[in-house]
Amino acid sequence: MVGGWLALRRQRASAHGSGPQWLISLAAVTVSAVLVGLATDGLLPTPQPLFAWIAFAPWLAATANHGSRGALVLGLIMGLAYLIPGRWEVPAIPAQAVSEAVWEGHLWTVAVFLTYALPFALFGWIDARWLRGAVPSVLQPLARAGVLATLICVVWTPFPFTPAAMVVNHTAMIQIAEFGGEA
Asked: pTM value?
């Protein structure tokens, strides 16, 4: 009886991640956030868009060690970390217009940010729930990228934008992407 309970407890811990595993996963999300900050206008005066090519890799590797709830939480954290460097000013303007109280303005700002982080959280949940077992390992990178990109474009946000507009600082390239339907 006790042996079965311990085995079940160990299985749950491995599915949801243990304390040290969460620290490693949070460190991976932090590395991803720093890489996103380097790729956008967040950390350097001149963005380095090439960092965007590898920015999500630590986060995606960390989600593989968690169940669906853990991957959802990591996706939510990554979504917030992805958006804060490049988009802090945009949600603050409507938040200030809607409310006069400072705390209420912060709540509006957080609510707006959560709508932008929702595709990342949904991706973590969908990835852990269905993609890991349903897609052959050779096709997993393509399927994961396709699902994340689809969620970013499909999930409603108050001020629509795409990741290309955040990473690319060249107006001519963004205009070409808009012509093609991307931005």
From this structure: 0.71
